[in-house]
Fold these 2 entries.
Entry 1:
Amino acid sequence: MARRPLPRILSSGSAHIARSREMARSAADSATDVLHPLITITRGLRLLAGSGRRKWAATPKERRGPALFLVAACVLVVALLPYGPLLTLISVMAVAGWKGRDRTPARKGPNDAELQRLRSLYEALVPYFSVPEDPSPLFAHGGEWDKAFDEYEFDADGRLTRLRVSYPAYFTDGEDSSRVRIEHLLHTKSGRGREYLFDWDEEGNELVMSVLPPLPTDIAAQRFVTTPGETVLGFTDAAAVRRTVPVMEGDTTRDAPPVVWRTGARSTEPHLLVVGRPGSGTTSLLRSIALQALAHGDVVIVDGNGTGEYASLTGRTGVLAVECGLSGALSGLEWAANETERRLIAANRARQSGHAVPDDTKRPLWLLLDRPSAFSHPAAADGRPDPQELLQVPLRHGRAANVTVVVAEQFDTLDALSRTVRTHTRARVVLGAATRDELASVLGAPPHTTPTPETPTGRGYARLGTGPVLRLQVPATPDPYDDATSDAHRRAVLDLLPDRHTPPGATTEPTDTATRTAEPDPEPAPPARTKVKPRPRQSQAPVPAAVPAEG
């Protein structure tokens, strides 16, 4: 983008304007030094007068007369004493000077190491914040760095923790590429290994860089204080949200700022897409969502990984099915599509007849799909439809039918998601290490923070619709059947699981469930799976039959 040259009057008379500005600044500094005692005494007199008015207002009316008589007597005595008025005037001036002194502690300047760091940072910003046509550049080689850096803070190691930068008005702060260059430079020069937040003030031409504290990773799965229709995805910075919820950390309770995702008929983002890499915590997030959803609704889980990560949910009250094979996934999603249509028809008929909506259409239904793209290739090879095609009805009409869809996918197979899934999942979460371009492609906007050098499990970013991009730390919700899970986290997940429930006509074997869920599917027979028959409803909606696991 070509920059327009400055007007000729600025370029021709630049030396004269610079000299006039320097003379005005010197005159103002000299006047301030000369008048400083008078300014101090005037401030003190104003404070003394204010204190006298407050004391007079606090004096009861019956005591004001004697107080006035006492003051008049003192004035008369002072007036009759030799040199009394002069000594009184000197005393009042002394008290006013003491009262009006500047009590602000003197600002300690940076030491030699910090000063060198600020100077090097200032010199590094000169090529980005200066143009040859500027007659009085704010950034120039060998210039005054204290005019550009209004505020700065250092930690005990001498590294910057906060910096306020004033930049020229002609800097293209509206272009993302220009801002990325400045953020990358400040991140590199200020020290790596930390996460920085960049707050751009385009109107004031200021940039504030601050170091963010790490998000807590010791918050385990628990009952969060939420209302029906609210799901806690994780926790973020205190300044990013206006709400806190009490959480348990060991034996103590504290308030933590949550990222709350609202679902239901009045939600603007009724469906969620979670993207990450292996080991980033996407399955833990789906497990956390399932545990929260079971408190008020029913859950259908489709596990494309086939590793038995959801075996602990099998046979629990509210868990309609846990599918790990292609046949089970197709039958479960087909039933979910028919159930969505049934709910829509029942609710429409009730409204047309002037009756209340049936209760069986109000109970939330959650469809949790972990890596649904894993079924695309087997379905195409077997001549069956892709399970993602069965999500069109729940995605498009799920909000009106209280049906919520949550899809978790990996970055490597993100292109395998159908267009319908991408379009209707407007709530997004990215977990694990990701580049700025990957975050922008999934979330729709880049974050205002630098990526973390070390990404713990469940660490990432979240964006609900068109809202801001928030840092996110998912509560620890591991598989309780995993041997690597700690006893505290295992107990926390097991305490949240509902009781086991065996519907009439269903045959399940509770022993070795996790092992049989992870076994490979035989061919050409339908794949073995662990499944619980959906609970019967009042309507005659088609429900997939329960298939017992093969021994």
Entry 2:
Amino acid sequence: MHRRLIVPGAIAASLMLAIPASAANFQPGAPGIGDPYYPASGNGGYDVGHYDLRLKYQPATDLLEGTATLIATPTQDLSRFNLDLGLTTHEVRVNGRKAEFRTSGAQELEVTPASPLPRNRPVSVVVRYSGKPSEVKIGGWTAWHRTPDGGVAAQEPDSAAWWFPSNDHPLDKATFDVSVSVPDGTQAISNGVLQSQSSRLGWTRFNWRSDKPQATYLATLAVGRFDITTDTTAGGLPVLNAYSKDLGANAGAARASLERTAEVAEWLEEVFGPYPFNALGGYVPNVRSGYALETQTRPFYSPRQFASGSNVSVVVHELAHQWYGDSVSVEGWKDIWINEGFARYSQWLWSEKEGEGTAQELADWVYASRPADDPFWTVKPGDPGPDDQFHVAVYDRGALALQALRNEIGDEDFFRILKGWPTERAYGNAEVADFVAYAERISGKRLGALFDTWLYQPSKPQAPAATGDRTAARSAAPAVADPAPAAPPKSWAKIAATNTVHDTGHPVHEGGHRH
């Protein structure tokens, strides 16, 4: 994120008038940020520092009306720029002046300001828009969940275009203020801390603030009728969990899981370092999906995650992402392993802590239960491709890579790395190669071969020698029990039940699994 002093719009406009367009090479910003998996995602030419979203939503009709104010800084001399938005735009103003706009493709809003925008001079962009998010199709699908009492925005790799204009890619994080007006008796849940709420003429407005850099896909909105529990952690962080009033038989198990959020976060702080954000919690709306998502400070959980009873393991997974995925985010979507491999491994560590199977025992089971000809081994977690971005191999083979690393360098350096990485890279972005370099620096060992074996080779790594001498095999595979385990560890059923945690139903993910 680029943080710069924000110049008021009127001042910025006057400064721009002093610079004739001929003095600089003003060019349009790129319509995509450059991610090879999703070429249309994000945009080039500017960096957003803050989103202010003022919304009104009517659950009965699914009508969303919004005014979004973006505070951004051009990273080049801009003649025009794009935003990602699927709803209908009514007006755009740049630095207070009306701007021309047109739409193209499925989500591109092309904005031409009245005056070109010089590089490095902050600007304000105001977009007035409306529409019914559930009726908006981008790539043939919608990221918006319609519920019996409202609607929910929670999807990956993108959901922002269904409810606000943005630079929709994890590379451009920003802070958020989300203000939502809904009919009395209905609540609006979003990220961060509830700053205030007030009622007037049959409508209640909820004002939320997320004050640390946040990727656009991690912004969430849920409107409906919720039972809400609140608390504070020992360190003073506000905790807010929300449960739809009509969860039916899943209601008790959902509460028994989410109400352990603060406990899980305290344990994760021991593993990953200080919690990076200003609030904790989660929410379970009445949706038909089966996945969960690490929406920042307030993860989304589908009721089906609790269909077989409470499952704290899924809470562990989503909260681990607050460090690995939310605070330290992907540079590009090919780097998904630095999100998912670590979130899955955190479930293995929780199992170890709870005495339900060590991480090594879980690694042994995963390795032994997948024969060499299983397509599982052809998926490369370090660059799985968009069709396999959320394949179970990114999770399980990704966690095997971490167990192999742990065996290679020992617990002391391994846990130094787990804690040091999200501290050193807090609120930024990273590639898989960045983590490999960091692990080598901390451990003092060359680890390229190990990571190549586990993250990039489309085949099952060689098992350790039958003699049980694990040392020689450590660089190729985690130590695997011989003979193969007769039964999975006790925690396996709960962990495996979260394999659909990222199975969002996005067409590109069919056959795969999503976080």
